[in-house]
Amino acid sequence: MSDVTTYRVEGMTCEGCARAVTAAIRKQVPDAFIEVDVLTGFVRVGREADEAAVRRAVERAGFTWGGISESR
């Protein structure tokens, strides 16, 4: 998928963390493409999602926002 933005999220250590981040983002942007990689700390989200909404979701889930890692 080329219309995604990759964000850095710190503090994820397991699949439970990935599910928590995914659920939090899904609450803010229900139809967004979301892909979480715990090993790298990257979260890829479809561009239909507003960066501020993704940030709020990540922080409300208890993780540290690292900002945009790369955009494609």
> N-to-C SSE series?
EHEEHE
Total beta strand runs: 4
Q: Kindly provide the name of the CATH class.
A: Alpha Beta
Silhouette: globular
| Structural class by sheet pairing and helices | alpha+beta
Query: So, CATH architecture?
Result: 2-Layer Sandwich
| Largest sheet descriptor | 4 strands, antiparallel
Strands side by side in the biggest sheet: 2-3-1-4
Estimated share of beta-strand residues? 25-35%
Q: First CA to last CA: what distance?
A: 9 Å
Helical content (DSSP H or I, runs of 4+): 25-40%
The domain count comes to 1
Sequence stretches where pLDDT stays below 50 over 5 or more residues: none
Task: Kindly describe this structure.
There is one protein chain. The chain is α+β, with helices and mostly antiparallel strands. The chain has a single domain (4-71), classed as Alpha-Beta Plaits. Helices cover 33% and strands 33% of the residues. The chain has helices at residues 15-28, 51-60; strands spanning 4-10, 34-37, 42-46, 64-71. Strands 2-3-1-4 form a 4-stranded antiparallel beta sheet, covered by helices on one side. Helix 1 crosses helix 2. It is globular, with a radius of gyration of 10 Å. 19% of the residues are buried.
